[in-house]
Amino acid sequence: MNLTHHLLIPMPALVGDYFTGSLIYVCDHEEEGAMGLMINRPSKFSLYELLVEIGTVTAQENKDQLLNTQVYEGGPVANERGFVLHSSETNYAGTQTLGEGLAISSSIEALQEIAQGRSPESYLLALGYAGWGAGQLEAEIQNNIWLTAPGDMKLMFNTESEHRLEAAAALLGMTLGDLALMASPGHA
What we know:
Number of strands: 10
Order of helices and strands: EEEEHHEEEEHEHEHHH
Radius of gyration: 17 Å
Mean pLDDT: 88
Low-confidence stretches: 184-188
Structural class: alpha+beta
Helix content: 25-40%
Largest sheet: 10 strands, mixed
Strand content: 25-35%
Number of helices: 7
Protein backbone atom coordinates (compact mmCIF):
# COMPACT_ATOMS: atom_id res chain seq x y z
CA MET A 1 0.00 0.00 0.00
CA ASN A 2 1.48 3.33 -1.04
CA LEU A 3 -0.49 6.36 0.13
CA THR A 4 1.65 9.04 -1.48
CA HIS A 5 -0.67 11.70 -2.95
CA HIS A 6 -3.59 10.63 -0.77
CA LEU A 7 -5.56 12.46 1.86
CA LEU A 8 -6.01 11.12 5.38
CA ILE A 9 -9.44 11.78 6.86
CA PRO A 10 -9.65 11.17 10.61
CA MET A 11 -12.43 8.92 11.84
CA PRO A 12 -14.65 10.47 14.53
CA ALA A 13 -13.20 8.10 17.14
CA LEU A 14 -10.03 10.22 17.00
CA VAL A 15 -11.27 12.57 19.73
CA GLY A 16 -8.98 14.66 21.89
CA ASP A 17 -5.98 13.82 19.75
CA TYR A 18 -3.68 16.38 18.10
CA PHE A 19 -5.02 15.25 14.72
CA THR A 20 -8.74 15.53 15.60
CA GLY A 21 -10.48 17.35 12.74
CA SER A 22 -7.34 17.48 10.62
CA LEU A 23 -6.95 16.68 6.95
CA ILE A 24 -3.51 15.43 5.98
CA TYR A 25 -1.95 15.30 2.55
CA VAL A 26 0.55 12.41 2.37
CA CYS A 27 3.65 13.75 0.61
CA ASP A 28 5.71 10.59 0.85
CA HIS A 29 4.97 7.00 1.90
CA GLU A 30 7.62 4.29 1.76
CA GLU A 31 8.54 1.17 3.72
CA GLU A 32 10.54 3.32 6.14
CA GLY A 33 7.52 5.47 7.01
CA ALA A 34 5.41 8.35 5.83
CA MET A 35 5.40 12.14 5.87
CA GLY A 36 2.43 14.43 5.41
CA LEU A 37 1.15 17.95 5.96
CA MET A 38 -2.06 19.01 7.66
CA ILE A 39 -3.75 21.25 5.13
CA ASN A 40 -6.78 22.54 7.00
CA ARG A 41 -5.51 23.94 10.29
CA PRO A 42 -4.41 27.59 10.02
CA SER A 43 -1.56 28.57 12.31
CA LYS A 44 -1.41 31.84 14.18
CA PHE A 45 0.92 33.24 11.50
CA SER A 46 0.37 34.94 8.18
CA LEU A 47 3.27 34.78 5.73
CA TYR A 48 4.16 38.37 6.62
CA GLU A 49 4.31 37.57 10.35
CA LEU A 50 6.38 34.46 9.64
CA LEU A 51 8.86 36.48 7.57
CA VAL A 52 9.15 39.05 10.36
CA GLU A 53 9.63 36.23 12.90
CA ILE A 54 12.50 34.68 10.93
CA GLY A 55 14.03 38.06 10.11
CA THR A 56 13.31 38.12 6.38
CA VAL A 57 11.13 41.20 5.96
CA THR A 58 10.30 42.04 2.37
CA ALA A 59 9.20 45.15 0.54
CA GLN A 60 6.23 46.86 2.15
CA GLU A 61 4.29 47.00 -1.15
CA ASN A 62 3.51 43.29 -0.71
CA LYS A 63 2.53 43.61 2.95
CA ASP A 64 -1.25 43.36 2.44
CA GLN A 65 -0.92 40.28 0.23
CA LEU A 66 1.52 38.67 2.68
CA LEU A 67 -0.79 39.40 5.62
CA ASN A 68 -3.55 37.57 3.72
CA THR A 69 -1.37 34.55 2.91
CA GLN A 70 -2.17 31.94 5.56
CA VAL A 71 0.45 29.62 7.03
CA TYR A 72 -0.86 26.25 8.24
CA GLU A 73 0.13 23.95 11.08
CA GLY A 74 1.69 21.14 9.08
CA GLY A 75 2.04 18.80 12.04
CA PRO A 76 3.75 18.28 15.38
CA VAL A 77 7.18 17.24 14.03
CA ALA A 78 9.80 19.97 13.46
CA ASN A 79 7.18 22.71 13.73
CA GLU A 80 9.89 25.36 13.53
CA ARG A 81 10.59 24.23 9.97
CA GLY A 82 8.61 25.59 7.03
CA PHE A 83 7.36 23.64 4.02
CA VAL A 84 5.88 24.90 0.78
CA LEU A 85 3.63 22.39 -0.96
CA HIS A 86 3.27 23.70 -4.48
CA SER A 87 2.54 23.02 -8.12
CA SER A 88 5.62 21.58 -9.79
CA GLU A 89 6.15 24.18 -12.53
CA THR A 90 8.41 26.04 -10.05
CA ASN A 91 11.56 24.65 -8.46
CA TYR A 92 13.70 26.08 -5.71
CA ALA A 93 16.94 24.88 -4.14
CA GLY A 94 16.18 21.47 -2.64
CA THR A 95 12.73 21.09 -4.19
CA GLN A 96 11.49 17.50 -4.16
CA THR A 97 9.07 16.52 -6.92
CA LEU A 98 6.18 14.49 -5.54
CA GLY A 99 4.45 13.58 -8.79
CA GLU A 100 0.85 14.36 -9.73
CA GLY A 101 1.97 17.90 -10.60
CA LEU A 102 3.16 18.65 -7.05
CA ALA A 103 6.45 19.42 -5.34
CA ILE A 104 7.58 20.32 -1.83
CA SER A 105 10.25 22.82 -0.86
CA SER A 106 11.68 23.71 2.51
CA SER A 107 14.26 26.32 1.56
CA ILE A 108 14.18 29.95 2.64
CA GLU A 109 14.49 30.75 -1.08
CA ALA A 110 10.95 29.45 -1.64
CA LEU A 111 9.53 31.78 1.02
CA GLN A 112 11.51 34.73 -0.30
CA GLU A 113 10.35 34.16 -3.88
CA ILE A 114 6.72 33.91 -2.80
CA ALA A 115 7.12 37.03 -0.67
CA GLN A 116 8.44 38.91 -3.71
CA GLY A 117 5.38 37.93 -5.75
CA ARG A 118 7.11 35.15 -7.69
CA SER A 119 5.01 32.29 -6.40
CA PRO A 120 4.06 29.01 -8.03
CA GLU A 121 0.61 28.84 -9.61
CA SER A 122 -0.67 26.93 -6.55
CA TYR A 123 0.95 26.68 -3.13
CA LEU A 124 0.32 26.11 0.54
CA LEU A 125 2.69 27.03 3.40
CA ALA A 126 3.00 24.87 6.51
CA LEU A 127 5.06 24.80 9.69
CA GLY A 128 6.03 21.30 10.77
CA TYR A 129 4.84 17.97 9.43
CA ALA A 130 3.14 14.74 10.44
CA GLY A 131 5.38 11.68 10.43
CA TRP A 132 4.97 7.94 10.86
CA GLY A 133 7.57 5.22 11.34
CA ALA A 134 7.73 2.00 9.37
CA GLY A 135 4.31 0.32 9.37
CA GLN A 136 2.77 2.87 11.74
CA LEU A 137 0.43 4.54 9.24
CA GLU A 138 -0.70 1.16 7.86
CA ALA A 139 -1.48 0.01 11.42
CA GLU A 140 -3.47 3.19 12.12
CA ILE A 141 -5.52 2.64 8.97
CA GLN A 142 -6.16 -0.99 9.94
CA ASN A 143 -7.26 0.25 13.38
CA ASN A 144 -9.85 2.49 11.70
CA ILE A 145 -8.18 5.76 12.68
CA TRP A 146 -8.00 7.13 9.13
CA LEU A 147 -9.93 6.87 5.89
CA THR A 148 -8.00 7.58 2.71
CA ALA A 149 -9.08 9.53 -0.34
CA PRO A 150 -7.14 10.35 -3.48
CA GLY A 151 -5.26 13.66 -3.38
CA ASP A 152 -7.07 16.44 -5.15
CA MET A 153 -5.25 19.65 -6.10
CA LYS A 154 -8.47 21.67 -6.44
CA LEU A 155 -9.48 20.70 -2.91
CA MET A 156 -6.00 21.41 -1.53
CA PHE A 157 -5.42 24.79 -3.17
CA ASN A 158 -8.83 26.21 -4.14
CA THR A 159 -11.14 25.14 -1.30
CA GLU A 160 -11.30 27.28 1.84
CA SER A 161 -9.46 25.55 4.68
CA GLU A 162 -12.58 25.21 6.86
CA HIS A 163 -14.33 23.27 4.07
CA ARG A 164 -11.48 20.94 3.07
CA LEU A 165 -12.33 18.09 5.45
CA GLU A 166 -15.95 17.96 4.27
CA ALA A 167 -14.76 18.18 0.64
CA ALA A 168 -12.39 15.24 1.24
CA ALA A 169 -15.25 13.14 2.62
CA ALA A 170 -17.28 14.09 -0.48
CA LEU A 171 -14.51 12.57 -2.63
CA LEU A 172 -15.61 9.26 -1.07
CA GLY A 173 -19.30 10.02 -1.60
CA MET A 174 -19.77 10.72 2.11
CA THR A 175 -20.41 13.53 4.55
CA LEU A 176 -18.77 14.02 7.93
CA GLY A 177 -22.12 12.95 9.40
CA ASP A 178 -21.83 9.64 7.51
CA LEU A 179 -18.43 9.11 9.13
CA ALA A 180 -19.91 9.71 12.57
CA LEU A 181 -22.59 7.11 11.84
CA MET A 182 -19.90 4.62 10.74
CA ALA A 183 -18.20 5.05 14.11
CA SER A 184 -21.40 4.56 16.12
CA PRO A 185 -22.16 1.16 17.64
CA GLY A 186 -24.63 -0.87 15.58
CA HIS A 187 -23.59 0.58 12.23
CA ALA A 188 -21.47 -1.37 9.82
